[in-house]
Design a protein that fits this description.
Elements: H1 16-39, H2 44-51, H3 55-79, H4 85-105, H5 109-137, H6 143-171, H7 174-195, H8 207-212, H9 217-237, H10 240-246, H11 254-280, H12 282-305, H13 313-328, H14 330-341, H15 346-371, H16 376-401
């Protein structure tokens, strides 16, 4: 209340590096959250064998995490709005640590699924709050960089989560890999507790207001495409170890290398899409992305069907890179379209897009699990069909909105 009579502090009191330090601390938390979300795909076969379920059933733990995150995120935003921000962030990371410890010690598949539900709730509480907190602590001219730093934790986890999980599972076992994620979460909680100032909560935005953006025609045209596009790339992703084996990539070295190439593609695709969206428009970026995705999955389908004749380590490496790039080029362009459709509801539509991303991940994981018993050919072919469907939906919605992209 007294801020109207006190002069603002001099600029030298809050140097740029200092305002970005909270974002760096929060990036450690988002790296833990992202690693938790992606690491499981690196050791699904070993986890399935230990819990006496099929690989497809074990993969549904990824889908369950995604579905709970998508549905819980807007509800938790309302329920936790009045909590002090540091308290909420600290509690979310400690819950994430406990959830991963529970999953690591799980004696049965049911207990594992319970751990994944708790982890998803923790992630849904932490990630949006981390972004808002970083922006609130940064100076106005540094907010974009602060958000980029926080999101960078998720981006790095996207690139490294699965290969780290694969390496840890091979060297230490899948339970130790989940234990390492729990330890990383505790480290993030310690950093938050020691370095972040306390920030008060705020009056909650009613869920009805949050969902009112769905009535905007432009928003309705974009969100289903996010779901479909993410579903396409996640049909094979959650089962990356067995489907890569079907195209000749197996062993302690080859699989992590292929997954690192996927991650490098994800980072490159995200960065280039952001730059080119500003230059040529989101529709053109997405058109190229979905075309590349469809071609990549079609080529992997051919490699899986042709057995030994067409397989090449170099070819699979290139396709893994394109798989990652085409998957993660979607987010900047889709967010650009949403912000153009509802600029006055920016934070709401971005949060809705995050829920749509996780709904797509969950749906793709379920579809991949259904296709996996028929072999990698069916998995990759299903992904190619969905990518073509995403390209078609893009053209239809772009024309209806009159976007030249």
């Amino acid at each position: 209340m007294a801020s109207t009579v006190k002069p603002p502090p001099p600029r030298t009191a809050t140097p740029d590096g200092a305002t970005l330090r909270p974002a760096a601390v929060l990036a450690l938390g988002t790296f833990a959250v992202g690693t938790d979300a992606f690491v499981t795909a690196g050791f699904l076969p070993a986890m399935a064998a230990a819990l006496h379920v099929s690989t497809a059933a074990a993969g549904q733990s990824v889908g369950l995490f995604a579905a709970v995150y998508a549905l819980a995120s807007p509800l938790l935003a309302v329920a936790t709005a009045r909590l002090p921000r540091r308290t909420l962030l600290l509690g979310a990371l400690l819950l994430l640590a406990a959830a991963n410890a529970l999953s690591a010690l799980a004696p049965s598949y049911g207990v594992l699924l319970g751990g994944r539900v708790l982890a998803a709730l923790a992630a849904a509480a932490f990630t949006p709050t981390a972004g808002a907190t970083a922006a609130g602590l940064a100076r106005a001219e540094s907010r974009g960089r602060a958000l980029a730093v926080v999101i960078g934790g998720l981006t790095v986890a996207t690139a490294l989560g699965v290969p780290l999980g694969r390496v840890a599972a091979v060297g230490l076992g899948w339970r130790a890999a989940l234990g390492a994620v729990a330890a990383l979460s505790v480290l993030g909680a310690l950093a938050v507790g020691l370095t972040l100032p306390q920030l008060p909560g705020a009056e909650p935005v009613p869920l009805r207001s949050r969902l009112a953006a769905l009535r905007r025609p432009g928003v309705l045209a974009v969100l289903p495409l996010t779901v479909l596009g993410m579903a396409a790339c996640y049909v094979p992703y959650s089962y990356s170890v067995p489907v890569l084996a079907a195209v000749g990539v197996s062993g302690r070295v080859a699989v992590p290398v292929a997954l690192v190439l996927y991650g490098a593609g994800a980072v490159a695709g995200n960065l280039l899409a952001g730059r080119w969206t500003d230059r040529v428009g989101p529709v053109r970026v997405l058109t190229v992305g979905y075309a590349a995705m469809a071609v990549t999955f079609a080529a992997l389908t051919a490699l899986a069907a042709e057995h030994e004749r067409l397989r090449s380590a170099v070819a699979v490496g290139v396709l893994a890179f394109l798989w990652g790039a085409s998957s993660w080029c979607q987010s900047p362009a889709q967010q650009h379209r949403l912000l153009a459709a509802a600029p006055e509801q920016a934070s709401l539509v971005v949060s809705l897009n995050s829920s749509a991303i996780y709904l797509g991940i969950g749906a793709g994981t379920v579809l991949g699990g259904l296709a996996l018993p028929s072999g990698a050919t069916a998995v990759f072919a299903s992904a190619a069909v969905l990518a073509c469907g995403a390209a078609g939906l893009l053209r239809v919605t772009a024309v209806r909105r009159g976007s030249s992209g």
